[in-house]
Amino acid sequence: MSWHTYLLFVGASFLLSISPGPDMIYLLSRCVAQGPRAGVAASLGINLGCYVHLLAAITGLSAILMTSALAFTIVKWAGAAYLIYLGISALLDRSNVQLTSSKLRGRSTRAIFLQGFISDVLNPKVAVFFLALLPQFVDQQAGNVIGQLLILGLTVNCIGLAVNLAMVALSGRISAKLREDELMAARLRKLMGVMFIGLGAKLAAERA
Fold first, then answer.
1. Cα–Cα nearest to 22, from 95, 110, 81
2. How many angstroms separate the CA atoms of 158 and 163, rounded?
3. Which positions of the chain have pLDDT values less than 50?
4. Whole-number pLDDT of residue 88
5. I need a labelling partner for 50 at 20 to 30 A (CA). Which of 15, 35, 115, 160 fits?
6. Which sequence spans correspond to the domains of the chain?
7. Contact indicator for 134, 152 with CB cutoff of 8 Å
8. For residue 157, what pLDDT is reported?
């Protein structure tokens, strides 16, 4: 895996992390409802859930690689197709971001952490995303595929945690922006969509 490939992955991970989604809405809602401490608990719970998906993805992809290099290539192609699908969906998405705090009851820090963890672990879209994204940046010719997957997974999870904690620190301003400026959220979704389509197209061009 070259530095160029890795930096491209970092950019994609950062863009994914700042794009509005269920995890961001949950942690910002907790911040608005109960303060930064609750937001930190939600962030840590969500991040721990991502490590469950990372472990599952590495285990599954490693098993596929040991079975057949061709099977691993097929998984990469299927993942590229899924990324393009996500990109098109993001470009066509016209839904509004809903950020509310009035319906959130006060909960203990532990309960908030567990809710963030469980909701992330039980989200099948996160699992599929890990399986789709990580293989696109693995260089099979470089060897040590498991090590590459681990580095990529740790990178995306660390970036996600850093972004989430930054959002907690700026929760008042960010949550207000998401409530008042739906255009900004829509632009982030479309930028993410273009990135995902580009990743899929890049893979297709390289393998043509």
1. 95
2. 9
3. 101-102, 207-208
4. 83
5. 35
6. 3-207
7. yes
8. 92
Rounded CA gap, 172 and 120, in Å? 23
Sign of CA dihedral 103, 109, 113, 115: negative
C-alpha distances in Å from residue 163, one per residue of 26, 57, 72, 174: 14, 22, 31, 12
| Residues 91/194, Cβ–Cβ less than 8 Å | yes
Neighbours of 205 (CB within 10 A): 8
- Looking at residue 162, its amino acid is A
Rounded alpha-carbon distances, angstroms, from residue 74 to 77, 81, 148, 163:
5, 11, 18, 32
**Tens digits of residue pLDDT in 112-171:** 899 889 888 887 777 777 877 787 788 777 777 788 889 999 999 999 999 999 988 887
pLDDT of residue 135: 79
DSSP annotation of 96: P
